[in-house]
Amino acid sequence: MNHYSIDTNCVQGTYRPKNGEPRVLPICQSTTYKYTSAEELGDLFDLKVDGHMYTRISNPTVDAVEKKINLLEGGVGAMCTSSGQAATLLAVLNIASVGDNIVSLSAIYGGTLNLFTVRLKQFGIEVRFANPAETDAQLDALFDERTRLVFGETIANPALDVLDIERFARIAHAHGVPLIVDNTFATPILCRPFTFGADIVTHSTTKYMDGHATVVGGVIVDSGHFDWKAAGKYPELSKPDESYHGVVYTDAFKEAAYITKARVQLMRDLGSTPQPLTAFLLNLGLETLALRMERHCSNALTIAGRLAQNPNVEWVNYPGLADSPFYALSKKYLPQGQSGVISVGVKGGRNAAVKFLNSLELVSIVVHVADARSCALHPASTTHRQLTDEQLLAAGIGPELVRISVGIENVEDIWADIQQALEKAGR
């Protein structure tokens, strides 16, 4: 269905029922699959043929959703996971191990920052943080022969920095490593990182892709563009895997080597498996993704503009505003919209920010973002609570910062609630 627009592929991509088959993607609620011979099943375990052997590794319902997301991003293969956090972890562990290091942008989601600074350290993987304001020469100094990847977010959560994908892809490739981009806030509707040189994309599908706060999930998408063998740094992909009788992923699966290894090795061993019902519900969200993103973006731009004029607001950070330091990058990478997420500094610091949140009525205080329903959060005391003051500063998170996720309700109703809460916070 590559000849259809992305809007159409959101609705009908990959699952095309034949005569007499279910119109809606069926839920295949089965852990196992029947075969007529031991030899056929043996070929599946040797990776000689395609098929489903066990739902921990693959499932028909999950497979259909993976193919749809892959189609939307323009990759060669995708693998759904049990959470966005699992997607990020597996994306890294697929090509990095003890003694290796990775380079990450400093402005990233707090959960990812904890994963990188605490858990990966326990795995023996060092994380070196990059500031996009640094020169290319300064960034080059972060790399050495054990560097395995560069990681960044298209739109950082909650700092809302816009990643210069082409620049960091160029720097990563100059050092023979891939660029992994978390595209959660942008979704493929607003940005397709592969077209700008990124090699791997991850998502927390819990956010805009689901869009209704119903299921937790994640996904990894492989562009198929990175030459793992030529890079000379990835023996796990270019040397025999003895757990599969010596298969060499780059030889057997060519451009799909990375995503195949992630599935048959890491998903097999770590079991971060999405459930069929989760995939079914995620697919329902995907069907309306293009429509919802249009409304999220238009509502957020309106709200951001009004916040910038409000006397009880210290500052507003939204890439779609002309005075944003990321406005030029947003026009390059996100010309159709900059998501529904706004960071705002409430005048009066932490106490005023908390009072503002406690005064909201329509907008909910929840540990969530990118929902059809408007919601808000104080990151410094919640999602980023475990970070030091220095880490909070590096992530662009001050005590006055409130993250507002603008939903798809009527924009005037959203604004009326925000406005009355700001008035109370300013008293």
How would you sum up this structure, described in words?
The protein is α/β, with parallel strands linked by helices and 427 residues long. Helices cover 39% and strands 13% of the residues. It has 18 helices and twelve strands. A seven-stranded mixed beta sheet has the order 1-7-6-5-4-2-3, with helices on both faces. The chain has a five-stranded mixed beta sheet with strand order 8-9-12-11-10. β2, α5 and β3 form a beta-alpha-beta unit.
Instruction: Please indicate the percent range of residues in DSSP E strands (runs of 2 or more).
Output: 5-15%
- The 3D shape can be described as globular
So how many helices?
A: 18
> Helix amount, in percent?
25-40%
Stretches where pLDDT falls below 50 for ≥5 residues? none
Strand count, sense and barrel status of the largest sheet are:
7 strands, mixed
Q: What structural class do you assign from the helix and strand content?
A: alpha/beta
Distance between the terminal alpha carbons, to the nearest Å?
A: 56 Å
Main β-sheet, spatial strand arrangement:
1-7-6-5-4-2-3
Please provide the ordered H/E string of secondary-structure elements: HHHEHEHEHEHEHEEHHHHHHEHEHEEHEH
Radius of gyration: 22 Å
Overall mean confidence score, pLDDT: 95
Number of strands: 12
Attribute tags:
427 residues; alpha/beta; seven-stranded mixed beta sheet; five-stranded mixed beta sheet; 12 strands; 39% helix; 13% strand; globular
Quick structural overview:
This protein is α/β, with parallel strands linked by helices and 427 residues long.
